[in-house]
Amino acid sequence: MKRAKGLCSVRMMFAVTSFLVITALHVMRINVSVVMAIIARANHSQAIEGHVMNSTSHLCPDRHSLQTDRDGNASEHSTSQDAKFQWSSHLQELLLGAFYMGYCVAMVPAGYLADRFGGKWIMTVGLMVSSLMNILTPLAVESHVAFFFVTRFISGVAETTSFPAASTLVTKWAPENERTKMTLLIVSGTSFGTASGLALAGLVCSRLGWASSFYIFGSCTLLLAVLWCFVIYEEPSQHPCISAGERHIIETQRCRKTNDEDKPSIPMCAILTSLRAAAFNVVMVTLAGFVIFTLMTNIPLFLRHILKLDTINIGLFGALPYGTMFLSMVLTSCLSDHVIHFNYLTTTQTRKLMINIGAIVAAGSLIAVPHVGCSHRFVITLMSTGICGIGVTFSGIFVNAQDLAPRFNGTVFAVGNCLSVASGFIGPIAVGFITEDQTDPKGWRVVFYTTAVLSLVGAAFFQLFGSGEVQAWALSPDERESKENYDNKDKSRDGDPTKTRV
């Protein structure tokens, strides 16, 4: 199979730009979790407040207070003064979950629009609205908690466009043997954005104040939206700079064969009742949903209230797990494409293998986190291993909608992502009840156990019912007729011993 040469291809520019977009969106998303750990005071039970630190062996020493007393660190002192909102743990988690409520509500419509009208412009609108909401967030926080909730909800609605739009564009721009690699490069922006966002948010909030982080990250994303408008095109045939050779390779080897004029009706009933699509939905809800969103929104709170880290260290240490996740996603995507391209394993076997390995690694690591005490190095190492495992599963999860239904992957992905993101606000709300006392390790232990169990449940379901093959309901009439003719011819050869099967 002929491959296009060169790292500076137009499709590579599309993939890198999409990666930057996803990165920027996740920088803005994780920034809110860091800010929440700064501006909201910790919730304690009266029993714990009444104890002396030395007599409570299950509590970690307050590194933040010790650092301030010893060095008189002005930046950290000012950060502690920012913790002026006495919000309950339930309200904090509700505010963190507001984004995912909006994300869930608009996900299926965004996928439908991406399939019907293309991904470029709905991504553009989503980027601009989300950027503006982030720039307005400090004003909303200072005004009233309800306004804070509304800005987060609208941001969630706006960002629903990102993955359906990117997934739809990938089917138009990626040759079949590059599909997993391109998809995972784009999706790896989630982990890279989370890692860089944690590190940058900790630094910016500590040095310039928490409000500055919203202004800086929102403005940078707004500029990126303008860049997206000028460099991204819906189809290779529309791009003014693409070579004839690259265009030919993309259009003959990509999995999406329909033209823009061909607007097929979307088989929603088949999508919602397909067992293979259900397996995709289950891993989206568990591994790519509850597990990753719960950890993403709550790791800064855990590092602040249990390990007692200061703002800068929350950012730096919190970034490490997502840095390892980024590397695991990039490496396993290349490995998956290599294994499938050289027929070492089928697409279905490859997807299942990656999901199983990643889930087992993640579950084992997350179960161990509550049992290493106050050693932040051991905790971060285990978190890094666990989230790295989740990254391995993504090479089997995020490309699966394209496996099952290339023509309708925007809708299939949107349904799965909608269910996934629903757990993104259910998870934090549940954590708010479980960790009502945010300084008690017992509640956090339940959180880590739950995420570990759900990792294994999702992998087991996909092992039983998942698939990497195009489904019959996703074929065009011509493709379906061709497949039926081939199957009938194949059966006739099997029944005639004088004919040799090819």
- Percent helix: over 70%
Low-confidence stretches: 1-7, 46-57, 65-80, 257-261, 497-502
Class by SSE composition: mainly alpha
Order of helices and strands: HHHHHHHHHHHHHHHHHHHHH
On the 0-100 scale, what is the average pLDDT? 82
Structural Rg:
24 Å
Based on DSSP secondary structure assignment, what is the total number of beta strands?
A: 0
How far apart lie the N and C ends? 20 Å
Beta-strand proportion: under 5%
**How many helix segments?**
21
Shape: globular
What does this structure look like?
The chain is mainly α and about 500 residues long. The chain has 21 helices and no strands. The chain has helices spanning about 10-40, 45-50, 65-70, 75-80, 90-115, 120-145, 145-160, 160-175, 180-185, 190-210, 210-230, 245-255, 270-275, 275-305, 310-340, 345-370, 375-395, 400-405, 410-435, 440-465, 475-495. α14 (about 275-305) runs antiparallel to α15. It is globular, with a radius of gyration of 24 Å. It starts with 9 loop residues before the first helix and ends in a 7-residue tail after the last helix.
Short description:
The protein is mainly alpha-helical.
What layout of secondary structure does this protein have?
Elements: H1 10-39, H2 46-49, H3 63-71, H4 74-81, H5 89-117, H6 120-143, H7 145-159, H8 162-173, H9 179-187, H10 189-208, H11 210-231, H12 244-253, H13 268-273, H14 275-305, H15 311-341, H16 347-368, H17 376-397, H18 400-404, H19 409-434, H20 441-465, H21 477-495
Helix pairs in contact: 1-8, 1-9, 1-10, 1-11, 1-14, 5-7, 5-8, 5-19, 6-7, 6-8, 6-11, 8-9, 8-19, 9-15, 10-11, 10-15, 14-15, 14-17, 14-19, 14-20, 15-16, 15-17, 16-17, 16-20
